[in-house]
Specification:
By secondary structure, the chain is of the alpha/beta class. It has 6 helices and 9 strands.
């Protein structure tokens, strides 16, 4: 019998409570992620995502971005931590930092991000507030490969979320988050199992 191929080794970068991380860990434990989460890295100490990692027995590291004089220096420390764990795939899940070529060059075509809008609409921070201010009737969630821009990389998956008349930023955020959880697990599975890969500005599916 041919031995099974080893699982893709994924790291998840976080800055907050970690609900998207939780979705990934639950899928990993259920055997439906197609990857093993081998490291969680936060740029902030004491966040909820670190507690979630500990409860699932996943090693975690805190690398405070304030300790570095440039984004590139911070990313170099990230790369060192990721390589120490033999990481194959980097998932940004509520990671509130713009990454640089240092990280992207170390993991070409292997860095993905989840964003609470239907890109290219409403990139950057406060996407839910942007959607409400603009008055759109539909927004959503996007998982994309990361490039040198801000939320400009090739789109891997999207899901729409209606904007209701009585929505607040908080209620809209909660409904988008549910789609983020589902979408991110599916996207990680597709990339980890080789079903999806980036070619230029397009994502190709096997």
């Amino acid at each position: 019998m041919t031995p099974a191929a080893p699982l893709t080794r994924a790291a998840v970068l976080v800055s907050g409570g970690g609900t998207n991380l939780q979705a990934l860990l639950d899928a990993r434990d259920a055997g439906t992620l197609g990857a093993d989460v081998v490291l969680v890295v936060s740029n902030k100490p004491g966040v909820g995502a670190l507690d979630r990692a500990a409860k699932h027995g996943v090693p975690a590291a805190v690398i405070p971005h304030q300790d570095f004089t440039s984004r590139e220096a911070f990313d170099a420390a990230l790369v060192a931590a990721l390589r120490a764990r033999d990481v194959d795939l980097v998932v940004l899940a509520g990671f509130m930092r713009v990454v640089t070529h240092v990280l992207l060059d170390a993991f070409p075509g292997r860095v993905i991000n989840v964003h609470p809008a239907l890109l290219p609409s409403f990139p950057g921070v406060d996407a839910q507030a942007q959607a409400l201010a603009y008055g759109v009737r539909v927004t959503g969630a996007t998982v994309h490969f990361v490039d040198a821009g801000v939320d400009t990389g090739p789109i891997l998956a999207q899901a729409p979320v209606p904007v209701l008349d009585d929505d607040t930023v908080e209620t809209l955020r909660a409904r988008i988050l549910r789609e983020e959880h589902r979408l991110l697990v599916a996207a990680v599975h597709a990339v980890a199992t080789g079903r999806a890969r980036v070619e230029g500005r397009r994502v190709r599916f096997a």
